[in-house]
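Task 17 of the worksheet. Students: predict the tertiary structure of the chain below and write it out as structure tokens. Keep your answer in the requested format; marks are given for formatting as well as content.
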Amino acid sequence: MTSSRKNKTLFIDKEAASALELLKDNLLYPATTLMNEKTSKEVLKTGLINEHSFPFPFLLAPSGKENEKVLRSLSKGEEILLICEKEVFATLIVEEVFAINPNERIKHIYGTDDTTHPGVISTLKRIGSLAVCGEYELENATQNENKQKIQTAKRVLGAQHVSSLFMAANPLHRAHERLIRQTLDSTDLLVIFLLKPYTKQNLSYELRKEALEYFVNNFLPKNRVLVLPLENSYIFAGYSEIMIDAIVAKNYGCDRLTIGRNHAGLGMFYDSNSNKSIIDNFKGVAIEINISSEYVYCNKCTTLVSTHTCPHGQHHHISYHADSILELLENGLLPPAVLMRKEISAFLLSKLKPKRFKNLEKLYSDTFAVEGLLEEHSEKDFYLELMKLYQTTSLT
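Model answer:
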């Protein structure tokens, strides 16, 4: 309900609200509060909070002329309202208001302020030049359901080890499936945090979730896998994404995190006769981080392989590029089964291209062998049967 109280107000978006919720749920520990200027400078200098790694200052600096005007008028101890989508999201007792450099903050998050970098422009528009800190209380705080689901699953399974994966699955392809199976093979419980972005994506969160749950429910021991939404706000962007993933997973109760070797934020390098990465510099983040192999389809091995175990060269390898697979779907083409499971591609294509056929039943009966029974068929059924024909080899 929109508030009629006379407190000064700041307007924040859902991304900021999501980050504030994570902080209040203790999912960003060692960060526990909005940071003041002194603490912010210390984090920038050391990359630590109480001897625990944290990638950048946790700040609230909403953009906009009205917000800036309010921020300049605030006094220490004053209570203000944080408004999100026209409703009161939280109340905050002002401790301090201080100046920040939006471009420098962007660099701390993304590692660059180059406006050609994905996400930089949209995030830069959200960040103002003044930050406010202080204790805050959420207006309609509720228990975190994700935490409860993980704890319940751990108790039911008697799980000793809980692994985590963060993925967009946009779309879910065969390499994703192999990564999931590999991770599940060495753990009692697997938590897949399915990223739920604030920017419009080609595949909606609901479609990606349904596809992922179909795979889990039909091809995995589903009682050992949890698919949970994770609001993919700006703090998960950039080269520090792995650190935030590790911190959130640990605070959710996971003791392991699996990431892909080609993860954009991994930053593998060679030092003192060994391969190292950004995770070698983590301090106090008590979670085991496993780097998975890169998977490709090899046309000599005729199966999905790790690039570390396949003896054939790159010219025999087909890589799993989600954007290219998605482009096939968007153009109405069924991706080959070596790239994507046929049930999932049929489901997604039927949703992306609904009612594309003039007479589906006639096309179905003219194209496929049928038993003569009068049955209704969906577009998904059509794509599944079409894939079977694609896989017929006697005439190819």
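Marker's comment: Residues 205-219 form the longest helix (15 residues). Residues 342-390 form one domain.
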